[in-house]
Amino acid sequence: MPSKSPIYPGPTTARGAVLAVLLSNEDQTGAEPLRGRVTLAAIVRALKRKYNWPIETSSFPSNAVDGRATGRRSTACRRMLSSAPSSGADATG
Predict the structure, then answer these.
(1) CA distances from residue 51 to 13, 19, 84 in whole angstroms, order as listed
(2) Domain boundaries along the sequence of the chain
(3) How far lies 74's CA from each of 39, 40, 56, in Å?
(4) Model pTM?
(5) Maximum Cα–Cα distance for the chain, whole Å?
(6) Rounded distance, CA 89 to CA 79, Å?
(7) Is residue 17 helix, strand or coil?
(8) DSSP category for residue 55
(9) More confident residue, 57 or 7
(10) Burial, 66: exposed, middle or buried (Cβ in 10 Å; 0-12, 13-18, 19+)?
(11) Model pLDDT for residues 19-69, shown as the tens digit of each residue
């Protein structure tokens, strides 16, 4: 079964801002587009599932500030996989 083509979210959305950072290969230095409404992990998950972006992630146990295990897991975005289209293309047009 062929994979679906990635879809670009709106450029002024949090998903669009996170995708722009991923496509630029820059580090996400802050959570400006999020403003406490949604986690970065949720946005990356939506980009992978709803928008079909080939993003490699890893999940790892997270700890509280004092080092105690919380039983929760965190997700880290590692990189965009090579099958992503060039950032100049726009599939929404």
Answers:
(1) 13, 10, 12
(2) 14-80
(3) 10, 10, 14
(4) 0.65
(5) 49
(6) 19
(7) helix
(8) E
(9) 7
(10) exposed
(11) 888 888 777 666 565 666 788 888 888 999 999 998 888 877 877 788 787
